[in-house]
Design goal:
62% of the residues lie in helices and 1% in strands. About 13% of the residues have low confidence. The chain is built from 14 helices and 2 strands; from the N terminus they run ββαααααααααααααα. A two-stranded antiparallel ribbon has the order 1-2. β1 and β2 form a beta hairpin.
């Protein structure tokens, strides 16, 4: 297509005059040639005024200057960051060798009189956990003695714990079983008491106290035969015990065997002549034998030594009865 230079109207290729305004058209270059392409490009772009072209050229120059300023600032910032902003142009432009610094001279020691300096107090040592000490061995004999002290002070629970501890040390310690039997009997736990006395005799058959106490448990249960057998054995093991003779004499009194009872109770009275309980039983034995004088004399001893009002009342009643028969 050929553009009219006057009215810029499009004309078919090969036209010599503008179909619109009749202006003579320029000759068209062959299609596909470089001149034809340039002409087409020039014709495609509308002509701009001269002032506009000058203005565009100055704007391009300003843009170029700003671009250079920006590039310089970027380069300057890069150099500043690399040298920590302590550079000089000479350092940047001229590299130099860096030598190791010379060693500092050793200081000369001068004798200086030292003054006392108040030092901060040392921190307090941290507490150290005490190591667990090994358990100290305590003999079962010692534990038994300690339990007896507890019992005398009416600390029955403390006494019980010590006896159990003694058995933990020595499960065959007979006296600990005896002590437990005594505690159980104290609180009327008769079955448990019998078992403890039996265990005591298992490990110590010669323990006369366990024999005597087990016999008394049988007597309370109504087992007179076993009680008599055990009390005879207790007397054989320890013939100087007033309690053993007295208990055996009581068994004979229960069976109305006054001769045997008087014999055992006389032996008990010899060992404990001021025991009002023994004297009371002996007076009953004399009455059973019909020995009135011995009975009155013994009842009088009961009155002299008895602190229990019931024994005093019983002695007075029997003395009045015997005197009334004379």
């Amino acid at each position: 297509m050929i553009h009219c230079p006057a009215c810029n109207a499009e004309n078919p290729p090969g036209a010599k005059l503008c179909v619109k305004c009749g202006t003579e058209l320029p000759k068209s270059a062959p299609v596909g040639s470089a001149d034809a392409r340039k002409a087409a490009s020039a014709q495609a772009q509308p002509d701009r005024p001269l002032g506009t072209k000058v203005k565009d050229a100055s704007q391009d120059a300003v843009d170029l200057i700003w671009l250079l300023i920006i590039l310089f600032l970027i380069f300057f910032g890069f150099i500043g960051e690399a040298t920590h902003w302590t550079f000089s142009f000479n350092d940047v432009l001229q590299p130099r060798m860096v030598e190791a610094p010379a060693p500092a001279p050793k200081p000369i020691r001068v004798a200086v009189r030292r003054h006392a300096v108040k030092r901060a107090p040392k921190p307090a040592p941290q507490p150290v956990l005490a190591e667990k000490k090994p358990a100290v061995y305590v003999s079962p004999e010692t534990l038994f003695a300690m339990s007896k002290v507890k019992y005398d002070k009416d600390d029955y629970q403390g006494s019980f714990k010590l006896l159990k501890q003694a058995l933990d040390v020595d499960p065959t310690y007979a006296r600990a079983y005896f002590g437990l039997g005594y505690l159980y009997a104290r609180f009327n736990m008769n079955d448990a008491a019998v078992r403890m006395y039996q265990m005591s005799l298992r490990f110590d058959p010669q323990n006369a106290q366990s024999v005597n106490n087990l016999a008394m448990m049988y007597r309370q249960a109504g087992n007179t035969a076993d009680a008599e057998y055990l009390l005879k054995r207790a007397v054989e093991l320890n013939g100087t015990s007033a309690d053993f003779h007295h208990n055996l004499g009581e068994i004979y009194l229960d069976q109305n065997q006054y001769d045997a009872a008087a014999k055992e109770l006389e032996a008990a009275s010899q060992e404990s002549p001021k025991d009002a309980t023994v004297l009371n039983s002996l007076a009953l034995a004399y009455e059973g034998l019909g020995n009135k004088d011995s009975a009155l004399s013994t009842w009088d001893k009961v009155l002299q030594n008895a602190k229990d009002p019931s024994l005093v009342k019983q002695a007075q009643s029997h003395m009045e009865y015997l005197k009334a028969q004379s």
